[in-house]
Structures are given as C-alpha cells and as structure tokens.
Design a protein that fits this description.
The structure is a single chain. The protein is α/β, with parallel strands linked by helices and 434 residues long. 44% of the residues lie in helices and 11% in strands. It is built from 18 helices and 12 strands. A hairpin with a 2-residue loop joins strand 4 (149-150) and strand 5. The radius of gyration is 21 Å and the shape is globular.
C-alpha cells in the first residue's frame, strides 16, 4: 500500500513536468542535444527526473514548459543539462521516490525533481543544499518557504505551486437553489438535497484526493492564525496530536461514506480522474476534487459543457485552498554545485517562471509572477491571493503528511473506524518523533 502512495506522489511530480503538454501556438524549440559525455562538455549538470527530453521532431503541442526553461538556462549559461530519467521499466518494482532517495543518498546526480515526502526525508538527512541564496528565494510566496524550509534551510523550490480545490457544477447548484458551501455542515446539506432530488452519489472521488477534505478542516486555523510555528513545534514534540486535529474531518468523511454521498468501494480502487471524471462531465455528479491544472487540461476538466467553478474545501474558516509543494533540490554534495546553482537560478528566474506559468496557466512560486486565470478558477484564486490556504505537505512537520493521511483515508474507505484511523496516526506520529 505504501508503494501505491509513492506512485501517486510520482504522478503529482509528473504533473508538474507535463502540465504543459496542452500548450500550443508556440514557435518550435531549437534542436539542442542535451546528452553529452564529460569529454564533450566542459560545464554540465546532471538532472534526475521522471521525464526525459522530448523528441526534437515532436509536435509543438507536446513541448513541455519545463523543457523550455531548461533550454533558456543552457543558452544563457553555456551549461549542458544532462537528463537522467526514471522509467518504470528500468527500475521494475521500485517507485520514483524510492529511486530518487537512493540516488540522492549516494550523490549520483546534481539536480533532482522531488516529491514532498522525499524533500522532507532528504532535507532532514542533510542531503539537500540550502537554496536561500538564489535570486528567486527573495521573491517566493510564503507558502513555498513554509513548506520547504527545514532547520532554517530552504531545500527545494518548485516551478509551480499545486493548489487543490472542489470542482463544482454551478448549474446544478442553481437548479436546486443551493449556495456553494463554505462549511462542512453546508457541504453535507448540499449532498443531502442532491440525493433527495435523484443524484444518488453527489461527490465523485478517487483513492488519492479525499484527504484534501481532511487537511482543509484540520488545519484551517493552524495555518491562518499567528501561532502556526508554535503549534507545529507542539506536534513535533508530541505535546499535541495530529489525531486531535484530524478527528472531526475523519468523522465528516465517515458521514459521506455512510450516507452514500461518495461511492467508497469505487473510490478505493479508482485512480485520479479515472473513477469520477466521466460522471462529472456528464452531470451525473455535481462535485469532484482536483488540482488547479485540471481546470485547464482537455484531458481532465478543461472543456465542461456547463458552468464549472473551482472553490476551496469546506472548513471552519470558509472555502479553503489546499496546497502541496514539490520542488527542485540540489545535492548537498553535488559534483557540479556551482553549475547546478546557476542552472536552477535561471530556471527559476522571473523570465523563465513567467514563460512556464503563461504556458501552463499555473500558480507561480514567485510573488511577482501572475497569470490571468480562467473564470472557473477565479473563486479559488481569490482565496489564494488573500493568503488563505492550508498545506498538505510541510517539511517542517516530522510526520509526513500527504502520503500518511492518504493511507489513513483509504483505510476508512475500506471499512476502518475513525478510532482505528486515529490510532494509526498516533502510531505514525510517535515513530516520526522517535
């Protein structure tokens, strides 16, 4: 089961690299050979990630925004970026995260694209360099610094910030005279009304993203009041329990399951978008959960035949966006440290981040880079711009969040009691502290 969670996190990392696949209308990228050996290139950087350089003859629609920024860095610095790529075939049963941990611990590469749990592990082990000296560090959104700072060191920086929200069919809400929900109670009432009017399963779900409800409800006050750091210290010391924060949200999910507002059996086995996308697009269910980029992608929810809006998850403080932060990290013992820092500084420059964000229509890690979002995303974006959010990944928390909570939610889907899930979270917290 742990392996499946890591695969799910690898999907998230792949999203960051591949979100630009739907971009079009750009000029062809020059054919630059990114694979050279030591004797052919005096200055180079080894990059390990889930995606290799695309075929130079590929259609422009498949040109990744990430790759454009790498080419910009190469041309400006005269440094070659050599792609070292994860493929499931090469590594068989090993997940991307497992392979990344092994490579980073053995100093096999300079630059890595990292998932949240790996950032936490490698940062805690001292295997990642401090990036606070990079130019972009001065302009980072607070959410990025909060998520990826360990022991005072900024150990990873993403090219985009991934925000999760509720995707809702506004026309169905209007049809039954329902306001978009702000609190858990309002959300449950909406589900009840939909079910009473013949919509048997109001919420489409998969096995990965139901934990977004948990984070929104559990951490609304923790991240939006002034004592955030003190509360995290209490959790890290064991003075406070994660289970105390999360019990009510698990009880909320239990109601969703018991009332049939979600199909627990289907969600338990469904991959992201696989189990709920068709029902949402055909208006059989009015609510799903997904990440920001899904609203722009034709392969997800980019072209619904109705008025779609993306809002935050219900919480005590209203509609709450949920962030999870991946990022680029540099090995603390990188062979080509100077070159790696220079490349990353260029990939994360204002110019490169603007190109990336505009191509993919995503949230930039820089406060200075803004991209006009589509109308559907404006409700979620409004809350983000107000500085209202919670984190589903935080390297400062000793217990890894995203994967562990997802596992607990899956057990709930599979019939476990709330008490069982809380006991497991308590066990994981004790392990993490020890």
């Amino acid at each position: 089961m742990k392996q499946r969670i890591r695969n799910g996190l690898f999907v998230l990392a792949a999203v960051l690299l591949c979100a630009g696949l739907a971009a079009c209308g750009t000029k062809a990228v020059p054919d630059v050979n990114l694979i050279q050996n030591d004797t052919e290139s005096k200055r180079y950087v080894n990059l390990f990630g889930p995606t290799e350089k695309s075929d130079p003859d590929a259609d422009n629609i498949a040109r990744k925004a990430h790759e454009k920024t790498v080419l910009m860095a190469e041309e400006k610095l005269g440094i070659t970026v050599e792609y070292r790529t994860y493929t499931a075939e090469d590594y068989q049963d090993k997940t991307y995260d497992e392979v990344t941990l092994d490579r980073a611990r053995n100093n096999m590469d300079d630059l890595y694209l990292l998932n949240p749990d790996v950032i936490q592990v490698l940062g805690t082990e001292g295997k990642l360099a401090d990036l606070s000296g990079l130019t972009v560090a001065k302009n980072l959104r607070e959410v990025v610094k909060t998520a990826n700072t360990i022991d005072g060191k900024l150990v990873a920086i993403p090219q985009e910030v991934v925000a999760y929200g509720l995707f809702v069919n506004k026309e169905l809400f209007d049809k039954y005279k329902l306001s978009l929900p702000n609190t858990p109670e309002e959300f449950l009432n909406c589900c009840k009304v939909f079910q009473e009017n013949g919509i048997d399963t109001p919420v489409g779900a998969n096995r990965w993203w139901l934990e977004t409800f948990v984070f929104a409800q559990a951490y609304a006050e923790l991240y939006n009041e002034e004592d955030t750091d003190a509360r995290i210290r209490e959790l890290n010391s064991g003075e406070a329990k994660y289970s105390d924060y999360m019990r009510e949200s698990f009880e909320f999910l239990k109601v969703l399951i018991e009332e049939g507002y979600i199909d627990a059996e289907k969600a338990y086995v469904s991959e992201a978008l696989e189990g709920e996308r068709d029902d949402f697009l055909t208006e059989k269910c009015p609510i799903v959960m997904a990440y920001w980029g899904a609203a722009n992608a034709d392969t997800a929810y980019g072209n619904p035949g109705f008025d779609m809006q993306v809002i935050g998850f219900p919480s005590s403080l209203g509609q709450m966006p949920v962030f999870t932060i991946t990022g680029y990290g540099i090995s603390s013992d990188a062979k080509h440290m100077e070159e790696a820092m220079a490349v990353l500084d260029e990939i994360l420059s204002e110019e490169a981040l603007s190109a990336y964000a505009e191509t993919n229509q995503v949230i930039s890690p820089s406060e200075h880079v803004e991209v006009e979002c589509i109308d559907a995303l404006k409700p979620l974006n409004k809350r983000i711009n107000e500085g209202i959010y919670v984190l589903a990944s935080n390297a400062n928390m000793k217990m890894e969040q995203w994967g562990n909570v997802c596992l607990a939610v899956r057990e709930l889907l599979n019939g476990a009691s709330v008490d069982d899930c809380m006991a497991e979270l308590d066990r994981l917290q004790k392990e993490a502290i020890k």
